[in-house]
Design a protein that fits this description.
single chain, 538 residues, alpha/beta, Rossmann fold, Luciferase, domain 3, GMP Synthetase, Chain A, domain 3, 7-stranded mixed beta sheet, 17 helices, 29% helix
Length: 538
């Protein structure tokens, strides 16, 4: 016997319609690429989104077309999310930090029909244009005054939509229709395409907004520092509109001072970004003595949340939460919302829980698998490969030639992890970054986090280097804070009490900078190249 409920498609345009009915006076604020602050309401945005939908239709965009965008977090890119998807086309957010070669690859691989971009990226587009095979038109995300910066033949966004109607009849189609696509960062081979359906992103928005996840509600003010080209700013253009909260887009200025100005002027209560962003803001606060009177919570993802950041922001009354997910997961899989009996503990007792990746969102299944393929117990001790499945998790990569899932239908994340009896996930390392020493696995993340607690350490990265007896041993690579005088011996003595003896680094090397990838992660591949001939001291 089947249920007797209506079968209505879960489409992102329904989120827009819902916001128009209920939250049309809520603000969306942007620090524009040109400089001034732009401010309008959800009601204003909806009118412009419909103008854009009409404009896209007039230039020939149809269902299934791919629309590329290379842009900062701004109101114009926000409008593209809803107009492109509402037509049944697919918005392809291109990461400019991939560089010309990889960016050209993903645009050609996706077969983008049109390309939108901010003036900042005009030189990148100019370098790529001779090599782009499918792009039929170029549009710069600005008005006519600044369009000259965009290169030959580019049309200003405001000219594109200027004469169009503010009314559009949104079509209905299958909820499994593609709505957006992102590519992985390509640190190990070519970037791989992930294609999201309307259904997946609507369900992700519901789950991410729950009290046991991001817990967003009307009256909150969110500033997503995580870029829109990094898994759709962690899906916030959809989830924010679903719950009707004010959005503040930072544009191109992501330094500590620039972010602080918006946190203060717009009374931001919640933000989201990778650890390097949070570190920059913390250093700015410590240097200037400024406070954060409005910010209450921050979601930290992309790489492990260091203890030093949790303790640092605690002094300012800000709770940093660890989240975990992937491009392949739309992206959020877990958020660390502490149960009441743990949240009220003193920080030293609370930290071991707060530094975990959190518990799974509804409908996300997780399991730990050993090297022999057997599923391990979720006892917090058994460590193995993390595999996941769920309604917003990838089934296969775009144009994939090899299977993406395991034989029994799970996605192998490439992370090494444990899961405790309460459901808390602990990412111990990426499988390719685990240091294999004397038959044991050592977590590079654990050593990095211990080093970051040292008052003179600004950045830390750990790689395994060859050892004639133990196969590999840890090498700690450190960037000192400005003016710091820390020694290798002093740092080693500082971190030893915080680690098992097997995880003690065999050496510390100082560098001026640690390579950071396009999504804010330490590039271990580059560190390995830098130290490929390194010999450990006897």
């Amino acid at each position: 016997m089947m249920g007797l409920m209506m079968d209505r498609p879960l489409l992102t345009t329904e989120i827009l319609k819902h916001a128009m009915r209920n939250f049309r006076h809520t603000e969306i604020v942007t620090r524009t690429v040109e400089g001034p602050i732009h401010r309008y309401t959800i009601g204003d945005a909806a009118k412009r989104i419909q103008k854009l939908a009409n404009a896209l239709s007039s230039i020939g965009v149809k269902k299934g077309d791919r629309i590329g965008v290379i842009g900062w977090n701004t109101y114009r890119q926000f409008e593209l999310y809803y107009a492109v998807g509402g037509l049944g086309a697919i918005l392809h957010t291109v990461n400019p930090r991939l560089g010309p070669e990889n960016a050209t690859f993903v645009i050609n691989h996706a077969e983008d029909d049109y390309l939108f971009y901010d003036t900042t990226f005009a030189p990148l587009v100019a370098a790529m244009r001779p090599h782009l095979k499918s792009v039929k038109g170029y549009y710069v995300l600005t008005d006519a005054e600044y369009a000259g910066e965009a290169g030959d033949g580019a049309v200003a966004y405001e000219e594109l939509i200027g004469g169009e109607s503010e009314s559009f009849d949104w079509p209905e189609f299958d909820e499994n229709t593609a709505v957006a696509m992102c590519y992985t960062s390509g640190t190990t081979g070519d970037p791989k395409g992930v294609v999201y359906s309307h259904r997946a992103l609507v369900l992700q928005s519901f789950a991410a907004s729950l009290p046991t996840a991001m817990c967003m509600q009307e009256g909150d003010v969110l500033l997503p520092v995580v870029p829109m080209f990094h898994v759709n700013a962690w899906n916030t253009p959809y989830s924010c509109l679903m719950v009707g909260i004010k959005q503040v887009y930072p544009g191109p200025r992501l330094d500590g001072e620039g972010l602080y100005e918006l946190f203060e002027s717009e009374k931001v209560t919640y933000s989201a970004g990778v650890p390097t962003v949070w570190l920059g803001l913390l250093q700015y606060l410590e240097k200037t003595g400024k406070e954060l009177p409005y910010l209450k919570k921050g979601l930290c993802g992309g790489s492990a949340l260091p203890e030093a950041l949790v303790r640092g922001f605690e002094k300012y009354g800000v709770e940093l939460q660890q989240g975990w997910g992937m491009t392949e997961m739309s992206p959020i899989g877990t958020v660390n919302v502490l149960p009441p009996h743990i949240a009220k503990l003193p920080i030293d007792e609370r930290l071991p829980y707060q530094l975990k990746a959190g518990r799974a969102l509804p409908f996300v299944d997780m399991r730990i698998v050993g090297p022999d393929g057997h599923v391990l117990d979720c006892n917090g001790e058994c460590e193995g490969n993390l595999q996941v499945r769920g309604p917003w998790i990838i089934k296969e990569y775009y144009k994939a030639s090899a299977p993406t899932l395991t034989a029994d239908g799970w996605f192998d994340t490439g992370d090494v992890a444990t899961i405790d009896p309460e459901g808390f996930l602990q990412i111990t390392d990426r499988s390719k970054d685990v240091i294999k020493t004397g038959g044991e696995w050592v977590s590079s993340i654990e050593i990095e986090n211990a080093a970051l607690l040292h008052p003179d350490v600004a950045q830390a990265g750990v790689i395994g280097v060859h050892h004639p007896k133990w196969q590999e041993r840890p090498l700690l690579i450190v960037v000192k804070k400005e003016g710091a005088r820390a020694s290798a011996e002093g740092i080693l003595e500082f971190i030893k009490p915080k680690l098992d003896k097997i995880a003690w680094p065999n050496a510390v090397e100082f560098v001026d900078a640690i390579p950071i990838g396009s999504t804010g992660k330490v590039l271990k591949t580059e560190l390995r190249k830098m130290f490929k001939d390194y010999e450990l001291p006897a």
